[in-house]
Structures are given as C-alpha cells and as structure tokens.
Amino acid sequence: MSIRILPFRQYSDNDVVNLYKLDTNSALDATTDVGSGDAGVFVSITNGNFNADPVTYQTNSYLGDSSYPFLGTSEMYPEVNLTVNAATSGHKPLGITLMQTAKNDENGEKLLYNPTKQTELQACLPGQAVPIATEGVFTLSDSGFDGNAVDYTIGGTVMISPFNPGKLTGVQGTHGRHGHWTSGHFGKVLGTGSRTNQGPTSDQFLGDYIVLQIK
What we know:
Number of helices: 1
Shape: globular
Order of helices and strands: EEEEEEEEEEHEEEEEEE
Largest sheet: 6 strands, antiparallel
C-alpha cells in the first residue's frame, strides 16, 4: 500500500458512502502492494444497479476450496453487488476511499481469517463495501497526485489524472459561487507543503503534499 492519504483530514460520517465494493480485479494481493486498492484513491461508480440484491453469495477462490462433497453449493462468499473503480480522466469521482482493499497481510496470510489485524491495518476484504468520503478536507501525499506540490495553484481546482486513474492533476480556474464545476473538475486546493526528515529520524510521510477540499 502506498500512503496516498495522510492523517490530517476533516469530514462528516454523513458524507461517507458505504454501498460499493472496489472492483475485484483492483483488490491488492497484500497490504504492502501498491495499486487502485490503496486508501486515498478517487473512485467512480461502475455498477449502480439497485435492482440487484445488496449482497449475494459468490464462488470465490479467496474463500478456499469449496468444492468438497455434501457442501451443497460453492457459492458461499458474500459480496456487495454495487461497484466502484479508480476514476478516469474527464469524470468527476464519487469520492475518495478511506480504507485499502486487500486479500492478505504483509506475511501473505489471509486477512479473512484475522479480522483483528484487518481492522488494525484499516483494510476491507475483496467484496466488502469500502468507505468512500464524498465531501471534506483531505491531505494527499505525492503518491496521490501527478507532479510536485508547487505545480498546484492555491485556490485552484483539480481533476483526475489522464495518466494515472484515481490520482489527481492540477488545472487552472476556480469554482462558481454555488460550487458548480465544469466537466471533470472538482475540489479546491487549500494549501501545499513538503515534509523533510528532522535530524536522524526518518519521516514516515516524507515528501510533497497538498491539502484538498472536495464537495
């Protein structure tokens, strides 16, 4: 997992959506991997069919071998049906993921069998609903946006990177009086900065960052 979203953040639980799972192919194999399953990824809806049941039981190899006789069915893994994936260029995202989606811990052991560690690592299992904040103030590390912090205009808007789905790029301009954005633009840069090591102590969050308001 790359650290895309830093600890400083302000949001209301009323602005968090808990309806969508991350696309199965985007789930990280391990919490130490990097990809669209990270926390701090901007996502868009890819399946919003509310006619389907909220949760269905699927055949999923992550559960293990479910082909033994007398089990009755191999469809035993519960999954949310509604889906999101990393937002692509030109689209305004639903919001930002607050947790990673991963199968295994740093030792290759399934988080499915260790819910305590899953909670400690702030991870969702494949198929589980991932919390998505749709409004608030968030701090993104340089792994969450293109370029450097100095490339972003204070008060300017942002949009999804044309090169890296789920990441940001800076654009010129500001939003309207009532918060209406032009196509693909969202959020406002509140400030930028850079963290450096202090003496012999290595800073876990070393590098550029931007503070962003989304709504």
